[in-house]
Amino acid sequence: MKLDRREFIKQAAIGSALATAGSLFPGISFGSWNRLAGGPGVLAWQKTPCRFCGTGCGLLVGVSDGRAVAVKGDPNCTVNKGLCCMKGYHSVQALYGRDRITTAKVRKNGTLVEVPISEALNLVAEKLKETRDTYGKDSVAMYGSGQWTIPDGYVASKLFKGCLGTNNVEANARLCMASAVTGFMTSFGLDEPMGCYEDIDHADVFVTWGNNMAEMHPVLFSRMLSNRKRRAGVKIIDFATRFTRTSQAADKTIIFKPQTDLAVANSICYEIIKNNWVNDNFVNEHVSFHKGKTNIGYGTEDHFTFSDSAETIDFEAFKLFLEDYTPEKVEKISGVPAEEIKYLASLYGNPSLKVTSFWCMGMNQHTRGTWINNLVYNIHLLVGKISTPGNSPFSLTGQPSACGTVREVGTLTHKLPHGVVMNENDRQMAAEIWQVPVENIDPKPSYHTVEMFRALDRGDIKFMWIQVTNPMVTMPNLRRYRDGALKDDRFVVVSDVYPTPTTDVADVILPAAMWIEQEGMFGNSERRTQHFAQIVDPPGEAMSDTWQIIEVAKRLGFEKQFPWSQDNYIEPIWEEYRRFHTGPKHEMAPYTVLAERSGVQWPFVDGRETRWRYNPAYDPACKNDKDFDFYGKKDNRAWIWARPYEPAAESPDEEYNFWLNTGRVIEHWHTGSMTRRVPVLHNAVPSSYVEIHPEDAADLGVVNGELVKIISRRGELTMPAQINGRGVPVRGMVFVPFFDESYLINEVTLDAFCPISKQPDYKKCAVRLEKA
Amino acid sequence: MMKTHAHHSRGAPLSLLVVSLLLPLATLLGGAATATASDVPDNFDNQGKKLFTAQQRTPTANLSADSGGRTLAEFYALRQYPGSPPRIPHVVDLAFSGNETDCLSCHGKGGYSTEFDAFAPVTPHPENVLCTQCHAQTKTGEPFVETDWVSIAAPKLGLSFLGSSPPPIPHSLQLRENCIACHTGPGAVVEIRIDHASRGDCRQCHAAVPQSQPLTEFTRK
Questions:
Q1: Is A87 a catalytic residue?
Q2: What pLDDT was estimated at residue B99?
Q3: Higher-pLDDT residue of A20, B161
Q4: Mind telling me how many Å the CA of B130 is from chain A's nearest CA?
Q5: Candidate CATH numbers 2.30.40.10, 3.40.30.10, 3.30.200.210, 1.20.1050.10; the one for domain A44-95
Q6: Could you tell me where in chain A the CATH 3.30.200.210 domains are found?
Q7: Residues of A with CB below 8 A from B15's CB?
Q8: Residue A548 to residue A542: CA distance in whole angstroms
Q9: Using one digit for the tens of pLDDT, what is the confidence trace for A186-231?
Q10: Does the structure show a pLDDT above 90 at A281?
């Protein structure tokens, strides 16, 4: 009965001979890239951190004939152990987009005209001086980025805060992790995670809090999957407002209504206490209880101010506070069944399970972002699951140096490289290291990011220098801030690598060296500082952001503070900066060590990296002879905060009946100014769309690809519907990726922010939909 | 709100088992209770859940095992164009049990067949149980009349955008959502078999860029 298999294949092969002889595809350009003429074909591999997210994967960049031509994962880097994601593997292609900015441009009579970069830098220095002389020191501002290298941010802070005497230094990381900072500061007194990525190899349970890690931190996510495959019993719980690729991989998805994570977190604490899962020894020894102000507002009005005040309470008062958050009550607020809340609590409460919580923008871009950060720490603190391998409340970052440059260097209005401008000792230290009179450093913070762009619109700020970021795509309530930037007597300088909607509003465009076209350092999510050498030359007159600032500083007469030569400036800047962090709590590795290794974790003490802080088995700063030392707070304790549920700044109502949520896709990073110029990534997701639940789409009468108009109180946008695509929002919510400058979704979003962190909420505002 | 799919009801007892082994407390508290609002829909992101489920359930050994017994030439020889349902290359005795889904006894999970002295290829879409709806049997090798049919060429392999970068997914994912099924294990075609599937998330590195679509470049409007 058997037909001989080999015989059969042979016959079939003859039948389809025509098929295999078929013609090639028209229009395909695979493999047709320009080959290096005369290239030796031999690669030199050089280490660098990836240019994109805050994971900080180690890459090896292959160089041939002076060009970056290939990427592989760096096996020596413990972050990714030789693996990358699709963005990392193709990252070097982002250097070679055809519309790269290679010369300076100056707006003359409304038109951008190419000029030598020295002439443009002259103009920047002149305009800065003239504006400052005419309108005062706080009329000029620097707006930087979590993609600034550490030296970029350091010289920006030194010039503006130290020399020019204004605290008008902010960075786009205000939009991405300010709530993480205020969460750490209020709960622990020191910024940045206590744990590290190695927690992934120890945890039994992962809870992702509003965090689509499968797309946003893919390398860490696949490390979780690989652990789940290898070790019995590992579970991933996706706690989310929308179904994503992470939901597909998770063992369980629990959907909550936007903003109600506050109530669910409190309810988990309620259950932990009710079931006697509290780690009494830990709480008695290492925790104190506090409450702050309530009904704290949303910051949507100009000149909004808020400062919290902490009141110490006791455990009994905290228990009383939690009485409002029984699972049954919270089910009504959150839509999460009481049983699911109890289940989550049981995972945190089970003493035999190690639990790691991950979060990123879902908790940080939140009008109660500081609070929800506090509340997740509360959970870990009640059960003592912290600062030990696998037990980790872990705040992820979205940019390669949000931690390294913005949080550690302190490129925020209230910050200094060590401490805050409000503190006299911190000002003293900065003045000494910077060699400026201490009176130069203003003790009063000026504008946080949203207020800084409002000040630009109002005219309080007349000069703004923007580096390595694209606020004319990313500012919420965008129309106001673009109109403001375009006003007649505003002078906007933009340093960037490609034309963007932000260079469109510039009066001067400075061509910037990108990533490995300069030497620098990034700092990733797990306190790891990562050095990269200059691997290829920048194109045309492109110059590092650090050196642009130094050139302007010299023109303003600050040669003494910026004495370095263009041949060697990164090493001396690093060694000067490192003085701010002397001591076991934040000691940074010397330049020579950074240059050799694929990243070094701080505190770096006596040649050793610190993987888990506050734990004396790993952290040399612990001094109290106990099993933990939370030395960030004066009472040597971690703080549990009673923080209530309060609603979002704007929720769906009869007129605007949908939630609008915004975010990313795996292919594109932020505003796409780099990833859209990488062919494979652009081809995979060429344009943005609005995700709609299939039933909502049916009610609206639209099918996949048909146009939908999204209308808010700020603006409207018409774009194609995507149904059952990359993600599926719940009914009553739409989701829009923000990478596409042709669909500026931030003209629709709301500029409400967390009153403590001043970080805007891009995940929640109210819209209505029309079929377009 | 979401319909509970057969896929989930099959999955539930397994996850219940895992939960009850590891988390007796959780189970007592109703940890395995179903919350209809949170049931993840099946049909989005190219049914990516299949991929993660397959990665989790396929024994580690099977993710990397190789037999070398099947080549790409043989694979395409059974197809009229890239992506067409392959013909059934062996005799099917429908009287065997009278049950159409018997195909899945070999092609559901794969494994060695003594009858064919080969490892069975694994179907990426076992939920479509009426196999012979698409997969035709071959009773004769002779054409009725000759045909002038021509096909496009099969996707080229190894077309990375950079030396050392992971090649994009060159084919449509419809009905081929589960990468694990065709690209891992001893039944896989040797030219497209990989052995790093334990990493878990294929589409972390491999972007979907079907070769049958023209490549375009980003330009500012």
A1: yes
A2: 60
A3: B161
A4: 23
A5: 3.30.200.210
A6: 44-95
A7: 251-252
A8: 10
A9: 999 999 999 999 999 999 999 999 999 999 999 999 999 999 999 9
A10: yes
In CATH, the number for domain A178-396+628-642 is 3.40.228.10
| Beta strand residue intervals within A524-633, DSSP E | 528-532, 600-601, 604-605, 608-609
ipTM higher than the 0.90 cut: no
| The two structure tokens encoding residue A755 | 């009153």
Q: Do B161 and A247 touch (CB under 8 A)?
A: no
Q: What is the pLDDT of residues A366-398, one digit of tens each?
A: 999 999 999 999 999 999 999 999 999 999 999
Contact A245, A253 (CB under 8 A): no
- CATH of A104-174+401-563, picked from 3.40.50.620, 1.10.3720.10, 3.90.230.10, 3.40.50.740, is 3.40.50.740
Q: Taking CA atoms, what residue in B is nearest to A42?
A: B163
Beta strands in A135-281 (DSSP E): 140-144, 169-171, 205-209, 235-240, 242-243, 252-255
Interface residue B3 vs chain A (CB under 8 A): no
Length of chain A in terms of residues written: 772
Query: What whole-number distance in Å separates Cα of residue B42 and Cα of residue A406?
Result: 41
Please name the residue of chain A whose CA is at the shortest distance from the CA of residue B69: A6
* CATH 2.40.40.20 placement within chain A: 658-749
Mutate to test the interface with B, among A91, A228, A683 (most CBs of B within 10 A): A683
Residue of A29, A55, A248 to mutate for B, most B C-beta atoms under 10 A: A248
Give Cα A732 to chain centroid, integer Å.
Answer: 27
CATH 3.40.50.740 maps onto chain A at: 104-174+401-563
Select from A71, A226, A253 the Cβ nearest to the Cβ of B38. A253
Distance separating alpha carbons of residues A235 and A249, to the nearest angstrom = 10
Q: Which of A69, A244, A336 lies nearest to residue B163, judging by beta carbons?
A: A69
Which residues 60-119 in chain B show a CB within 8 A of chain A? 60, 73-74, 76-81, 87, 89-91, 93, 115-116, 118
CATH T-level assignment (fold) for domain A658-749: Barwin-like endoglucanases (2.40.40)
**CA neighbor of B170 nearest in space, from B139, B128, B208, B130:** B208
Residue A3 has a pLDDT of 41
Band the pLDDT of B15: cuts 50, 70, 90.
very low
Location of each CATH 3.40.228.10 domain in chain A = 178-396+628-642
